[in-house]
Amino acid sequence: MVGQSDAELPVSYNHIPLIIFGKGVKPMKYTGLGTQVDVMPTLLGLMKVNYTFEGFGVDLLKHKRGMVFYSADNQIVARDATHCYIYNPRMDKTFCYDALPGWKLRDTRFTNAFRSLRRYVFSMEQTAQFMLDRQR
């Protein structure tokens, strides 16, 4: 868990390295940014399977993600290689962390470096709210 008692986040659930091995595949460990939607395109790329994919995922061995977005325990998270921005809508509070080697996080204050992550979080929240309102 990282964060203060009012903004804890299970980091290990969201930062699990993808370890790839198999016949004809050189063992490797990918520890860059990625999301669940990237697993299928990445594995198909490793297997050299020709496919048409119209989802949101990318082959992580060909395309690096600059930032990722996820949610956990009523918190919305955006992170890049050096920063992690967490927003708790229930509390209307944000938490900022520097990303350290080994997927460790260190509490810090909001700076300009977090602006793009903040925009990403609030864009996703606004989209989700729009879809909820539309369903009603």
Report what the structure shows:
By secondary structure, the chain is an alpha+beta fold. It is built from 3 helices and 7 strands. It has helices at residues 11-14, 39-46, 115-135, and strands at 18-22, 25-30, 67-72, 75-80, 83-88, 93-100, 104-108. The protein is globular and about 50 Å long.
Instruction: Give the CA-CA distance, first to last residue.
Output: 36 Å
Total strand segments = 7
In helices, the fraction of residues equals 10-25%
Number of helices: 3
Largest beta-sheet characterization: 5 strands, antiparallel
Q: Structural class, from helix and strand content?
A: alpha+beta
Q: What is the topology, as strand order, of the major beta sheet?
A: 3-4-5-6-7
**Global morphology:** globular
The oligomeric state is single chain
| Radius of gyration using CA atoms only | 17 Å
Query: What letter string, H or E per element, gives the SSE order?
Result: HEEHEEEEEH
Mean pLDDT: 81
β-strand amount: 25-35%
Which ranges are low-confidence, i.e. pLDDT below 50, for 5 or more consecutive residues?
Answer: none
